[in-house]
Amino acid sequence: MNTTIWALILSAVSISFIHTASGPDHYLPFIVLSKSKQWSKSKTILLTIACGFGHVLSSLVLGTIGVFMGWQLNKFSWFQEIRGNISGWALLLFGVIYLIYGVIQTIKNKPHKHFDVLGDDVYVYEHNHGEVVMPQSRIKVTPFVLFMIFVMGPSEPLTPLLFYSGLNRSVTEILALVIPFALTTVATMLGMVLLGRYGYSTFFKTDKLERYMSVVSGAVVTICGIGMVFLGW
After folding, report:
1. What whole-number distance in Å separates Cα of residue 180 and Cα of residue 172?
2. How many CA atoms does the CB half-sphere of 60 hold within 13 Å?
3. How far apart are CA 215 and CA 176, in angstroms?
4. Cβ(35)–Cβ(194) under 8 Å?
5. Is the pLDDT score of 57 beyond 80?
6. Model pTM above 0.85
7. Is 173 helix (H, G, I), strand (E, B) or coil?
8. Cβ-count burial 103-116 (b if 16+ within 10 Å, e if not)
């Protein structure tokens, strides 16, 4: 495989792992519900995998927009003459913009999801730091609600990488992004859930990393863009 393929694979794996591992909402509900409802190991694994692929699917639906735009743009003959330069610069520009966006969101008191454990039940709600949440604003988490939460929460940084591959009209590059992203997401979720289910989650304190997820993802895309533009990846 050439350097570009390896760069895209590493970017997809990095973004997927950081996005999943840094957010307790990707595994904490499964751990609590599995213990409180006394789910079997197989039921816990199956629900985690289903939600993981639901999360991947929503990310790929969003990413398909990037592929379509890049693929359509590449049909113009005038664009093919400048494609090599503009595709890398487009990736770099998006990475820088997303990095700046992540820094701003980290500084701001942006709304974020929380999961509360009350007895044997888990509730989800969104709020700002310091904001009081009324009981009626919380939603009780069931397996179906949990699945819908993941389906409606895509990973945005995958889109510019797929846009880049769409510009190149490269099915190989698209697969090099999609397959590692999907497998890493599901494997990370499952690993964190099983560690927590058997009492090892205390060794991994990732809740404080969640607010920096957009910054790190933006940095990964930026580094990938720099490599495409300046290093000949």
Report:
1. 12
2. 16
3. 23
4. no
5. yes
6. no
7. helix
8. eebeeeeeeeeebe
